[in-house]
């Protein structure tokens, strides 16, 4: 923060909401956003591959097989195979590439992403108002709460499914699956304190090898059955849905599994930056995923018996064991995207007044978004371990997977419309058809996943419901506290005019008062003056109110003192990172 020269006997009132003379509109200065590793442009991309894309990157292990089984045809029809690959292709292009990577990543909130950052962009003045609950706030809170529910399940099902590969080596290992899963999860959560950069250096190279490997396997199989390229035609996707509308509901729910890491991609933006996420997606992740899905479809076209496990069937016999080992490592890493996303989400909830304050540990001196939240980490670990002990197998958890994140995706789409119209100044004639397309796709996925409610889908919904209730209760309570403090405060001008009647001594130096009162003198300052009748010659009232996460305002009021003992004030305006407030002031 730039230095401000305050003469002795002055009062500086720092306020985050209003920074203007009477009748003057607020302005912004120092608009620079946090930079994400401007030196080596490829290291953030490597970090993104290790942190962001583990979840969506391991979907080929099971998504295509589940979708084929959902058709109910044994062996699968060629039209089913081509249609499901086409659905997968267009889902990845429309939802992940177009919606998230192209559009949603533009809606960064001072470098931060996630549905709460999106909410703060469209309704900054409604979030903290506990007297009313707008539909926008309800959407944002519900979407964030569902993401917490998904964050509890994802590490459990990812590591469990990886460890169940031990049964392929020997059935005797079945008894060790749950203990080994618990040990790996404890180790995974324990290393979170090392920070995003360190974890990215560890996980990034492994995931690069994974994506290159599945791309090569896909190329080989597509070469052997080029007929699978018919799936590029969207008519094939429409045809498989229209052929059996009842069965297609289950197929759509299974195809959604290829998108499960999409929302985490946005939530992790603060850790690595939008540019790194885009570079990694279009440069490696998307081509590798498409080649892998097309390769699995090509293999099943040639050999319908491979439908039982099309992913591993793509590999030659000599490569099976190394591929299982690599898939195990990649599946364990898949948990990281949701864990990092929960950290960002928790900090944003704190800044917006939706949850209690807790300790936040910055893990990088260069990247503002790279943080570690111990409380969220250990609570997430506890919930994940309980799920492993309760459900015991990935099959038991399969029904609970997908419904929470599909709800979050739909909420993101609805909020995206407000961002497009209010922040990007799009005409409704342009925004409505684009958002309607995304909304129709997200709604179909949510409807299809709703069938899982009785098969375990109730669990993440219940977790999300509890989190949403806690957020809304904390919001209302915090609003009541602010109203009470405001009623106990005194207007600054009135305080300045009557200060000589209450103060009998002025101590030299500077006194800084941190207060939640946006306008007026702090109740604590009034209490201090009333009981001690002494005040510093220079007093700073500092208030932090965030219009949205990561930004705050400072301002000071008033004019030249009419009396040497009266307070003199100056006006200053400055924008700064909220996390650095106390360190830089």
Secondary-structure map with pairings?
Elements: E1 11-14, H1 42-51, H2 54-57, H3 63-70, H4 78-103, H5 115-122, H6 135-163, H7 166-169, H8 177-190, H9 196-224, H10 234-243, H11 245-255, H12 262-267, H13 269-272, H14 274-302, H15 310-313, H16 320-333, H17 336-351, E2 361-362, E3 371-372, H18 374-391, H19 394-398, H20 403-423, H21 428-449, H22 458-488, H23 492-502, E4 505-514, H24 523-532, E5 534-542, E6 552-554, E7 574-576, H25 581-584
Parallel strand pairs: 1-5, 4-5
Antiparallel strand pairs: 2-3, 6-7
Helix pairs in contact: 1-9, 1-14, 3-11, 4-10, 4-14, 5-6, 5-20, 6-8, 6-16, 6-17, 6-18, 6-20, 6-22, 8-18, 9-14, 9-16, 10-11, 11-21, 20-21
Give structural notes.
By secondary structure, this protein is mainly alpha-helical. It folds into 2 domains: 11-19 and 489-584, no CATH class; 42-476, Amino acid/polyamine transporter I, CATH 1.20.1740.10. The radius of gyration is 27 Å and the shape is elongated. The chain has helices at residues 42-51, 54-57, 63-70, 78-103, 115-122, 135-163, 166-169, 177-190, 196-224, 234-243, 245-255, 262-267, 269-272, 274-302, 310-313, 320-333, 336-351, 374-391, 394-398, 403-423, 428-449, 458-488, 492-502, 523-532, 581-584; strands at 11-14, 361-362, 371-372, 505-514, 534-542, 552-554, 574-576. The strands form 3 sheets. The chain has a 3-stranded parallel sheet, covered by helices on one side. It has a two-stranded antiparallel ribbon with strand order 2-3. Helix content is 59%, strand content 6%. It is built from 25 helices and 7 strands.
């Amino acid at each position: 923060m730039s230095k401000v020269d305050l003469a002795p006997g002055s009062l500086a009132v720092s306020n985050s909401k209003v920074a203007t003379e009477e009748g003057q509109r607020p302005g912004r200065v120092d608009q620079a956003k946090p930079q994400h590793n401007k030196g080596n442009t490829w290291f953030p991309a490597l970090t993104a591959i290790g942190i962001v894309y583990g979840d969506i990157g391991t979907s080929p292990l099971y998504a295509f097989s589940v979708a084929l089984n959902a058709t109910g045809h044994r062996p699968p029809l060629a039209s089913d195979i081509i249609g499901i690959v086409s659905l997968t292709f267009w889902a990845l292009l429309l939802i992940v590439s177009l919606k998230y990577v192209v559009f949603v990543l533009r809606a960064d909130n001072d470098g931060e992403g996630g549905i709460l950052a999106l909410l703060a962009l469209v309704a900054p003045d409604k979030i903290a108002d506990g007297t009313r609950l707008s539909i926008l706030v309800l959407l944002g809170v519900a979407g964030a709460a569902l993401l917490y529910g998904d964050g509890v399940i994802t590490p459990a099902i990812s590591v469990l499914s990886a460890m169940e590969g031990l049964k392929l080596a020997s059935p005797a290992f079945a008894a060790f699956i749950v203990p080994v899963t618990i040990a790996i999860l404890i180790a995974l959560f324990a290393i979170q304190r090392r920070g995003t950069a360190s974890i990215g250096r560890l996980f990034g190279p492994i995931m690069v090898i994974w994506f290159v490997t599945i791309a090569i396997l896909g190329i080989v199989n597509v070469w052997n059955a080029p007929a699978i390229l018919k799936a590029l035609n969207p008519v094939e996707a429409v045809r498989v849905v229209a052929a059996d509308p009842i069965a297609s509901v289950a197929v759509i729910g299974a195809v959604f599994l290829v998108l499960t890491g999409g929302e985490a991609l946005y939530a992790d933006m603060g850790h690595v930056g939008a540019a790194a996420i885009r570079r990694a997606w279009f440069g490696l992740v998307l081509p590798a995923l498409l080649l892998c899905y097309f390769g699995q479809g090509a293999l099943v076209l040639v050999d319908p018996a491979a439908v039982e496990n099309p992913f591993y069937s793509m590999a030659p016999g000599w490569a099976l064991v190394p591929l299982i080992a690599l898939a195990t490592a990649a599946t364990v890493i898949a948990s990281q995207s949701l864990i990092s996303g929960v950290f960002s989400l928790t900090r944003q909830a704190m800044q917006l007044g939706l949850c209690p304050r807790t300790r936040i540990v910055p893990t990088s001196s260069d990247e503002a978004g790279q943080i570690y939240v111990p409380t969220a980490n250990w609570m997430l670990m506890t919930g994940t371990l309980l799920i492993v002990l309760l459900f015991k197998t990935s099959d038991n958890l399969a029904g609970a997977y997908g419904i929470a994140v599909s709800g979050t995706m739909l909420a993101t789409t609805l909020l995206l419309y407000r961002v497009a119209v209010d922040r990007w100044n799009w005409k409704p004639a342009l925004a409505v058809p684009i958002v309607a397309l995304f909304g129709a796709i997200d709604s179909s996925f949510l409807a299809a996943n709703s069938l899982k409610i009785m098969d375990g889908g109730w669990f993440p919904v219940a977790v999300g419901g509890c989190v949403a209730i806690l957020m809304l209760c904390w919001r209302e309570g915090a609003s009541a506290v602010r109203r009470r403090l405001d009623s106990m405060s005194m207007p600054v001008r009135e305080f300045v005019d009557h200060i000589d009647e209450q103060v009998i001594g002025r101590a030299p130096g500077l006194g800084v008062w941190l207060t939640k009162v946006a306008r007026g003198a702090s109740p604590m300052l009034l209490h201090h003056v009333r009981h001690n009748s002494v005040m510093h010659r220079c007093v700073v009232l500092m208030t932090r109110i965030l219009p949205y996460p990561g930004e705050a305002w400072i301002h000071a009021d008033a004019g030249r003192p009419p009396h040497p003992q009266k307070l003199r004030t100056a006006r200053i305006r400055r924008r700064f990172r909220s996390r650095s407030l106390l360190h830089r002031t």
